[in-house]
Specification:
The chain has about 300 residues and is an alpha/beta fold. The relative contact order is 0.15. It folds into two domains: about 130 residues, Nucleotidyltransferase, domain 5; about 120 residues, 2-Layer Sandwich (Nucleotidyltransferase, domain 5). Helix 3 crosses helix 12. The chain is built from twelve helices and nine strands. The radius of gyration is 21 Å and the shape is globular. The strands form two sheets. It has a five-stranded mixed β-sheet. A four-stranded mixed β-sheet has the order 8-7-6-9, with helices on both faces. The two termini are about 25 Å apart. It is about 45% helix and about 20% strand.
């Protein structure tokens, strides 16, 4: 295969598509990084066009960084781990997408996070970002927990913390809960003073918008605010429950990733904290691993039919 950059051999595109952003990498057959890209939300629950546009935007950035052109997209063997495709209807929608790649292998963002965190080996992972979920992959057994979506799921996630923040601030401003530092922090962040202004700001808020304000809860908790400490304790309890359920499969490694993970770790049970190991690679590299694996299985199946 010859493309505009002069690269020979297969090129792999790893796609990590979450509820807030989409990260991609392009690597060659020797696993050398050629280019990276960043796009918007790639969760099909936000709309297929939004998700596919995010993937294509990030891929174009990576191609440009690699010294390639848009036409080279057709040479990429893509592995994609996307939020939301654990739901069968969205997996089907994406499976039917007329993508521009040489091949497109689809799984969940949770799956590629686990593959990447343990370099393809057995283990467990919890994502604590805009959403929350966990997966263990041990001796061929898969156990996945959560990932049901906000607001009816994703407990202990950035979106959940942001929604709890707004909920308690409104209760405090109505005089139904004690004074809390959360109120002044949120009003200062938004540049507003009234309850109606807060309600107006969050009237049509997405999970990403709620998650943006989650760090305020941890800031207030670090200053000893009782309401914030209560929210953090509740959120950490959800994550503990996920971890302990995953531990039932006795994974040899356990990692946590996501923008909120490092903030949550100090509040988790000692057993969970002590089990933590660093993620060996980012989810987008897990997607590359997945693409290689699926391509090899396809090649073997074709060869067996000859």
């Amino acid at each position: 295969m010859t493309i505009s950059s002069g690269q020979q051999g297969p090129l792999y595109l790893g796609i990590d598509g979450g509820g807030s952003k989409c990260r991609v990498v392009i690597v060659n057959a020797d696993n050398q990084l050629l280019g990276e890209g960043l796009g918007g939300p790639a969760n099909p629950l936000r709309g297929m066009k939004i998700a596919t546009d995010s993937i294509l935007t990030a891929t174009q950035q990576a191609l440009t960084a690699a010294g390639m052109t848009f036409n080279d997209m057709s040479h990429l063997i893509a592995g994609a781990g996307l939020a939301g495709v654990n739901m069968p209807q969205y997996f089907r929608l994406f499976s039917e997408w007329k993508h521009p790649f040489a091949a497109f292998y689809l799984t969940t963002d949770l799956h590629i996070a686990c593959i990447g965190a343990h370099n393809g080996g057995d283990g467990a992972v919890i994502i604590a970002g805009t959403g929350s979920c966990g997966l263990a992959d041990v001796k061929g057994r898969l156990l996945d927990i959560g990932g049901h979506g906000f607001p009816y799921g994703d407990n202990g996630s950035g979106a959940w913390f942001g929604m709890q923040l707004v909920h308690h601030v409104l209760l405090q401003q109505d005089g139904l809960e004690p004074s809390t530092l959360l109120s002044s922090l949120l009003c200062q962040e938004l540049g507003v003073t009234s309850t109606l202004d807060i309600v107006s700001h969050f009237m049509h808020a997405t999970p990403t918008v709620y998650a943006k304000y989650a760090p305020l809860v941890f800031s207030a908790a670090e200053q000893g605010d009782a309401t914030a400490l209560g929210i953090v304790a509740q959120g950490a309890a959800f994550i503990n429950q996920i971890a302990l359920k995953l531990f039932e499969l006795s994974p040899p490694r356990f990692s946590m990733i996501g923008g909120l993970a490092y903030k949550l770790v100090p509040y988790l049970d000692n057993k969970v904290q002590q089990a933590l190991t660093p993620a060996l690679a980012a989810p987008e590299y897990g997607a590359v691993w997945f693409a290689r694996q699926q391509q090899a299985l396809l090649t073997a199946a074709v060869a067996a039919q000859r």
